[in-house]
TrEMBL record, chain A:
Keyword entries, A-Z: Cell membrane, Membrane, Transmembrane, Transmembrane helix, Transport
Organism superkingdom: Bacteria
Membrane topology: Multi-pass membrane protein
Compartment(s) where it occurs, according to its Swiss-Prot or TrEMBL record: Cell membrane
Family classification: Belongs to the binding-protein-dependent transport system permease family.
Record protein name field: Carbohydrate ABC transporter permease
Domain ABC transmembrane type-1: 82-274
PROSITE patterns noted in UniProt: ABC_TM1
TM ranges: 21-42, 86-108, 120-140, 155-177, 198-218, 253-274
Length: 289, 328
């Protein structure tokens, strides 16, 4: 539609340009509605307290301060919870990646009885009702002495990210022509060598993208982190800490927003880096789930 | 490899009916003997994970929902079966039915708003010039990327009774009654904020997905419709809508299922309160189980949730397999 618009603009200027104005206004409104909460979080984090607690909020901070970030970082256990989050997320994603690589290779490259049924299981697992499984997982962890331990969380996050990882990796593997591997095997490579030296390097971008989405899922997870880590406060993760931040800091909204910013930053950075993938194929893969 | 495959025994069992998938050259593991085990070995960890981390908890929840399982039984482990008594208790409890009704109301409000706004935004993005389109898409992606807990915290700050920017804006617009209006103390207000929060978080995904569906509609279709003199509204109904219907239904069922994920936002923001005003099924289940130690009743409520989700899931899968059934 847009390439035509310049030509038609010359012929009938009024209604065309009014339409354009209307569309652009709607676009601007959408952008403002999307960005304002993010913007408000970041600017509040940089505002001095007297500006935060004033009767007339200012859209732009008069003076910028890093005080709130200092409060947040110096808060009890911040570094520990950060470390816990990274540890749990990285382990879960790596585990999911290794397991998914095998499974998706089997699905994309091999023919075997039960392949379709296996893929159906994966699709069902992708839609697993995790919100309804909190109670049994809590009871099972309690019975097996796995409460308050990070490996429990890691396993849960592994299972949460695994189905999506398989679905996406299957697509990536299927896109690489098997003739490449076969040629290497004709030249005397073993099947495993052919996979490692031919397919795997071609797969690297896919692995990167997939793991980053898994990373975000695990990084943001709250429900299980909240109910499986109860007594051992040292094993908490960032989302749980952030949700209790107001109890710790009371009405210090500057520090709360600084903590939110610090927590959101990795996810925002990853998404912006991957924007091209996000807007194309990945949208169909139910990423946020 | 291909040499080995060619010399291997002809397939003993009939291959799946889909002809393109059954063509030789793609098939890897038909080497007979030990090699035939490879795909199963590769798939085994996934299957084991699903069995232990999904199926076992689900089965355990079903069991608990059929038992008398409270704090004592949790500690001593001597739960006994009571048949469907927990479901009876639940289904005769007026409070439970209120929660079910509220769940559906919450779901309807969210899904209708999300789909409506997302369709509008998708149509808008399609009609924009390149610069504006990139800007809107980037803004959508940014909103999508915001972690749930961070957004929930920010919304609490936006709607803060004393220093919140929303109350300030409403006052400037002449609504004096919003002077220090405590949003989270009123049931309906808290419910509204949660709907706003969920909609804000969900529209980007839906809009981007619908937009990519719109881009697959061939331009010739629009052109011929326009040449035939169809109005804009008629083009939308007769051309656009039928073309994006499959993706639309897919997104719709996803959003219905994801309503239950609002558990996190509700738990952090209102804990189901004030009173019961924002308690939906998963919140009710966890409150009953972990706060009142009625694990049996909580599990029964969870199973009702699973049944509700399963009904929607069947629709979702039918749609999805129509979409990519061949590639499975």
């Amino acid at each position: 539609m847009s390439p035509v618009s310049t030509a038609t603009l010359a012929r009938t200027p009024r209604p065309r340009s009014r339409r354009r104005l209307l569309l652009n206004t709607a676009a601007a409104l959408t952008i403002v509605l999307c960005l304002f909460p993010v913007y408000w979080m970041i600017t509040t984090a940089f505002k001095p307290n007297r500006d935060i607690q004033s009767d007339t909020p200012r859209l732009l901070p008069r003076t910028w301060t890093l005080e709130h970030f200092r409060t947040a970082v110096d808060a009890d256990g911040f570094a520990l919870f950060w470390r816990n989050s990274i540890l749990v997320t990285l382990t879960a994603v790596l585990l999911a990646l290794v397991v998914a690589l095998g499974a998706s290779f089997a699905v994309a490259r091999m023919r075997w009885r039960g392949r379709r049924q296996f893929m159906l299981l994966v699709f069902i697992a992708q839609m697993a009702p995790w919100e309804a499984l909190i109670i049994p997982v809590y009871i099972i962890s309690r019975d097996t002495g796995m409460l308050d331990r990070l490996p429990t969380l890691t396993l849960v996050y592994f299972m949460m990210t695994l189905p999506f990882t398989i679905v996406v990796l299957r697509g990536f593997i299927a896109a690489i022509p098997p003739e490449l591997e076969e040629a290497a095997q004709v030249d005397g490579c073993t099947r495993r060598h052919a996979f490692r030296h031919i397919t795997f390097p071609l797969l690297a971008p896919g692995l990167m993208a997939t793991s980053l989405f898994g990373y975000i899922t695990a990084w943001n997870e709250f429900a299980y982190a909240n109910f499986l880590i109860i007594k051992q406060q040292d094993s908490r993760t960032l989302p749980v800490w952030l949700s209790s931040f107001q109890n710790v800091f009371g009405t210090d909204w500057g520090a709360t927003m600084a903590a939110s910013t610090l927590f959101a930053l990795p996810a925002l950075a990853v998404f912006l880096l991957l924007q091209r993938h996000v807007t194309s194929g990945f949208a169909a893969g139910a990423v946020k789930g | 490899m291909s040499v080995i495959r060619d010399s291997s025994a002809p397939p003993a069992r009939p291959r799946p009916p889909s002809p393109p998938a059954a063509e030789p050259g793609r098939g890897g593991a038909r080497r007979g003997g030990r090699a035939g085990l490879w795909p199963y070995l590769l798939a085994a960890p996934t299957v084991l994970g699903m069995l232990y981390l999904l199926l076992y908890p689900l089965a355990r929840a079903v069991l608990i929902s059929l038992q008398d399982f409270q704090l004592r039984q949790l500690i001593q482990g001597d739960a006994r079966f009571v048949g469907l008594r927990n479901y009876e208790t639940l289904l005769t409890d007026e409070r439970f039915w209120q929660v079910v009704r509220r769940t559906f109301l919450f779901m309807a409000a969210n899904v209708v708003l999300i789909m409506l706004l997302a369709t509008l935004v998708a149509l808008l993005v399609e009609r924009l010039g390149r610069l504006w389109r990139t800007a809107v898409l980037s803004a959508l992606v940014l909103a999508w990327a915001m972690p749930v807990i961070a957004t929930t915290t920010v919304f609490q700050w936006l709607f803060h009774s004393e220093f919140g920017i929303v109350n300030w804006t409403l006052r400037q617009l002449g609504f004096g009654s919003f002077e220090r209006y405590p949003w989270f103390a009123h049931g309906l207000a808290a419910f509204t904020i949660l709907v706003l929060l969920i909609v804000w978080q969900s529209v980007p995904f839906a809009a981007i997905t619908l937009y990519s569906a719109l881009t697959t509609v061939p331009a010739e279709l629009y052109e011929s419709a326009r040449l035939d003199g169809a109005s804009a509204g008629r083009i939308f109904r007769a051309v656009t809508l039928p073309m994006i219907r499959p993706i639309f239904m897919l997104v719709l069922s996803l959003e219905v299922i994801w309503t239950f994920k609002a558990f996190v936002q509700i738990w952090v923001m209102t804990n189901g309160g004030p009173g019961d005003a924002t308690t939906i099924l998963p919140v009710y289940a966890v409150q009953t189980a972990l706060s009142s130690q009625r694990y049996d009743l909580g599990s029964a409520a969870s199973m009702v949730t699973v049944l509700l989700m399963a009904a929607v899931l069947v629709l979702y899968f039918r749609q999805m397999f129509r979409q990519e059934g061949e590639t499975l």
